[in-house]
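From the shared-data thread, chain only:
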Amino acid sequence: MSGLAHAAKIPELRKRIVFTLLMLLVYRMGVQIPTPGINGEALAAFFQQNAGTLFGMFNMFSGGALENFSIFALGIMPYISASIIIQLMTVVVPQLEQLSKEGEAGRRKITQYTRYGTVGLSIIQSMFIASGLESMAGPGGEAIVLVTGLQFKLMTMLTLTSGTAFIMWLGEQMTERGIGNGISLIIFAGIVARMPAAVGNTIQLIQAGEIAVFFVPVLLVLMFAVVAFIIFVETAQRRIPIQYAKRVVGRKVYGGQSSHLPLKINISGVIPPIFASSIMMFPATIGSFIQIDWVQQVSAALSPGTVYYYIMFVGFIVFFCFFYTAVTFKPDDVAENLKKNGGFVPGIRPGKRTSEFIDKVLTRLTVIGAIYLSAVCVMPTLLINKFNIPFYFGGTALLIVVGVAIDTISQIESHLVMRNYEGFLKSGRIKGRR
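Structure, as C-alpha cells:
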C-alpha cells in the first residue's frame, strides 16, 4: 500500500494534512479578493507588459496577489524582511542575544518583536505602493487608481497591512497544527499556483514564434537536470565518524558504538536566497514607484540582469549562507555534547580540537553550498535575458519548491515510521534538509 494511503490511516497525521490544505485554500481565496479603488484591467495589462521585470519576480513570490492587487498583495515578504532584521540584531544587540539563549520564553519574545516589525514594514511598503500606483498608468494610458487621495492611501495601507498580518498568522498556525513550515508552504503555494500561467504563456510565445521550437526540448532537459541536481545537493551529507568510548557500570558495558555526525552540504537551506531576494526587491520596488532621477538610476542599476544586481545578489547569498550557518550550528556546543557523552572523532582530541575540526569541515561545506545556491539563483535572469524565457525558472523559486517538498514529505514519513509504517519510498527514507 502506498505511503499516502498509510498517512490517511493515522488520525493525527490526517488532521494535520487536512488542516494544512484548508489553510492553503484560505490563502489562495484571499489572493483573489481585490483591494478597493483599483482598476483591475489596467493593472493586469501593466503586469503583463512587465512580466519579466522586478514586478514579475515580486508577483511570483506573492502567488499572483500583486497582479490582482488583492488584500494579500504584499505577501509574506515583510515578515521575511523583519526576520532578517531581528536575526541580524540578535548578533549585535546583547539584550536580544540573551533572549535567544533563554529557551522557549526567549524565542516567543523574539517572535513577538518579529511580528511588530512585520506590521511596521507592511505599513511603510503599502504607503509607497499606494503613492506609486497613483502616478502609474496601464499600457493604454488608463489610470490604475480610480480615485486618488488620502482616503485611497489610508485604505490601501490598512488593507495590505491587515492582509500580511493574516498571512503571518496562517503560517504560524500551519507550523503549529499542520505539516511542514507554514511560511515556506505559503511561498510554495504561491509559486506553484503561478506555474500553469507560466506554461500557458510559454506555449503562446512558441506559437507566436518568439521562442524557437527546437529550444523547447533543450529547456525541458535543462529543467529536469536542474531539479535532479537540486534534490541531490539538498539531500547530500558529509558524515563525520563518531566513536563512543566503552564504560563499565556494574557488570554491564555501555558504549563502544560507532555513529556519525551528518552535516548537510547546504545547511542553511533556502533561507539565504529568500533573504537575498527580499533585500534586493525592497529598494528596487521603492525606486519603481518614486519618480526621482537618482532613485530611478539606483533602481535601474539594481534591476535583474545588470552586473551590479548579480554582484550584490550573489554577495548577499554568500553572506547569509555563512551568517545563518553560524547562528544555527554551534561547533563548540556539538563538541561539548560529544565530550559529555563519551563520544569523539577518531584521530581528533575531544573538546577544542574537535570543535576546530567540525568548524573547518563546516566552513568548507558552507563555501560549496554558497557556490551552489549562487549558481542556481542566477539562472532565472540568464534564461530571461538570453533566451527570452517568460518566467522565473530556477533560482529561489525552484529551490523553495523542491526544498519545501522534501521537508514536508520527510515530516510525513517521520510520522509514518514512528507508527511502524513504510515511508513513501520502499528503497529508503527521504533525508530532510535539516
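The longest strand covers residues 237-244.
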